[in-house]
Amino acid sequence: MPTEQRTNGTRRWPSLDRRDLTGGAMMLACGAVTVLAAVGPTRRLVVGVLVLCAEIGLLASRRTRPSYGAACAVAVTIGAGLAAVALAPNGLGEVPVLAGASVLPLCVPAGPPRVAGVVAVSVAFGVTIAAVSGSPAGLLAGVGTWAIADRSVERRALRAERDRAVALLAEVEASRQARQEAAAAEERNRIAREMHDVLAHSLAGLSVHLQAIRAIARRENSPASLTGPLDRAAGLARDGVQEARAAVGALRAPHLRGVDDLKALVVGFPGDADLRINGRPGRLDPEAGHAVYRAVQEAMTNAARYATGSPIEVRVDWEAGELRVAVRDHGLPAGHRGSGVRGGGTGLRSMSERIEAAGGTVSAGPRPDGTGWRIALRVPVAEAASAAASAPAAEGPGAAGGDGGKMGA
């Protein structure tokens, strides 16, 4: 049976998004400008190697971030940039230095090591610019480097708070929905008790009195013009009692959500979530539909806890004999930290129990490509429609046409 916690296996190379590709292209363009600005073929060759080292350092830091290995990779980027500035003063070797300064705080834990690293980079950059320009005013470039690093720290903290807020909002939304459903159930039970105690008893008393009056009228040999309406009134009273009891039972029955409610669940999710539904819906038992809804809700909440900031994909596939639902995330994005919100450890266990009670199965684990987590479930369903109903009606005398119907979960 799956457990709530996720284990971190071998780290894979993080997927590149549009921002990473844009930044890499800009780095290469600036590197090409720096190479062309170098004087002589030897310097151009050396500067080209330095530019490649700077690019590789940034990519390596992204793979292992946050760690001291990533900090060493960023140091290579910054050192290569400083050397490129010294060899090609008219180029754009400053770009790798500034890019490394913005990434460095993401690689080193908060504390004296981070402060010392940022100070060293700022001083080295300011001294290099002052030496190349021949003016002490170049030392002010170190202030800009410090400001960029400080801005990166602030951005990291803001992103961490935002991710934590998303996870907390997911938890709050699930709790709010549960409280609303509990309050609604309590209110329905209260109304059902009132109907049972007042309406049903009143109708039952009315039926007894009508029957007594009918018996007296029959004993007194009353005409049919009197006994007929009494019989009809007694019948209506009996029917009213049965309908009142049915209404009480319906009110006391719990309100079950189903697959049709998944769209509202995904739309209301505070993070980035997407829903895709494929196939023709089949007939699904209400209890099974409710179990599927709860499973998807728990899976999305887990993704917000442990893969904070990652897009979530919910895929619903209706097939001939079963419903397949998969909830996937892409793992913790590079530079992000977990929300720190921890579950009670029973979410996936409860999910499995619900689905298994509906005759289905649940599987949870890392995605085959190693990027993120996947929860998949299967629930048996009836055929969406009979072959006779879905086939076109035959033309000719005596041919009967009909509409094929389908029932959503």
CATH fold group of the largest domain: Heat Shock Protein 90
Taking the alpha carbons of the first and last residues, their distance comes to 26 Å
Order of helices and strands: HHHHHHHHEHEEHEEH
Report the C-alpha radius of gyration, rounded: 35 Å
Q: Pairing-aware structural class of the strands and helices?
A: alpha+beta
Please state the overall shape, judged from the principal axes of the Cα atoms.
rod-shaped
Enumerate the spans where pLDDT stays under 50 for 5 or more consecutive residues.
1-14, 384-409
What's the CATH C level of the largest domain?
A: Alpha Beta
CATH architecture descriptor of the largest domain: 2-Layer Sandwich
Main sheet, how many strands, which sense, barrel? 5 strands, mixed
| Number of extended strands | 5
Say which CATH homologous superfamily of the largest domain is assigned: Histidine kinase-like ATPase, C-terminal domain
- What number is the mean pLDDT? 75
Number of helices: 11
Strand content: 5-15%
Give the tally of structural domains: 3
What percentage of residues falls in helices of 4 or more residues? 55-70%
Strands side by side in the biggest sheet: 1-2-3-5-4
Write up this protein.
- It is built from eleven helices and five strands; from the N terminus they run ααααααααβαββαββα.
- A hairpin with a 3-residue loop joins strand 2 and strand 3.
- The chain has three domains: 117 residues; 80 residues; 132 residues, Histidine kinase-like ATPase, C-terminal domain (Heat Shock Protein 90, 2-Layer Sandwich).
- Helices cover 61% and strands 9% of the residues.
- Helix 3 runs parallel beside helix 5 and helix 4 crosses helix 6.
- The two termini are 26 Å apart.
- The protein has a five-stranded mixed β-sheet.
- With 409 residues, the protein is of the alpha+beta class.
- This is histidine kinase.
- One of its GO terms (molecular function) is kinase activity.
- Its EC number is 2.7.13.3.
